Amino acid sequence: MLGIMFAYFRHQNTKNVIGGKISKAKTFWLGYAMFHYFILPLWILAYISQDFDAAYLIYIILGIFYFRMLLQTVLMFVTRTWSPVIGISYNAVASIGLIVISINLIKAEYWTLNNYILLFYILNLILILLTDTYYARRFHQLVGNETKGKTAIWFASEEEKFKQINLITQRNNVIFILLSLFLLLLLLIYGIH
């Protein structure tokens, strides 16, 4: 994942491509979010016991994020009409969906370590979505409708106008890494069985 993040950072910052230049903090945040949206749920699925009744919830979570990936790809690269407002709206709907999933998980008749790991993962996803919403709102305040068209800007670069949001992102990256390390440690220690 780190290799992909480095390659993407280099690609955005060495070529004149749609989306514009990207800061290190934003690159890391994107990689972090993608890991949690697409890779970690598959890892959790591989480790949970086969008789875990709530495993289907992970497939629902994957569906939520794969749908967003498809929608966002079309809006960014095909129609070039992506706006932070769309991302914020999707984050709100996805957060509500994840809260509903959490409630269903909490109502389980019996609790195992699987339930706790999955609930911690879902709560972490909700925090990621809320944080991403904050970033999108701040970014939208700075760039307005410059996120559309052939010269769209989608990322906070190292420019001075993005200095504050980059500092906040950098600080939050450390906090989220600590949360993730805790979850990964649980997965490794307990093997979720």
Tally of strands? 0
Globally, the shape reads globular
Q: What does the largest sheet look like?
A: none
Unreliable runs: none
Total domains: 1
Global structural class: mainly alpha
Order of helices and strands: HHHHHH
Proportion of helical residues: over 70%
Strand content: under 5%
Q: Please tell me how large the radius of gyration is.
A: 18 Å
Q: Total helix count?
A: 6
Average of pLDDT: 88
CA distance, first residue to last residue: 26 Å
Short description:
The chain is 74% helix and 0% strand.
Tell me what you see in this structure:
- By secondary structure, this protein is mainly alpha-helical.
- It has one domain (23-190).
- It contains 6 helices and no strands.
- The protein has helices spanning 2-14, 24-47, 56-78, 84-106, 113-143, 163-190.
- Helix 1 (2-14) runs antiparallel to helix 2 (24-47) and helix 2 packs parallel to helix 6 (163-190).
- The longest helix has 31 residues, at 113-143.
- The radius of gyration is 18 Å and the shape is globular.
- The model has no long low-confidence stretch (mean pLDDT 88).
What brief labels describe this structure?
mainly alpha, 6 helices, 74% helix, 0% strand, 193 residues, single chain
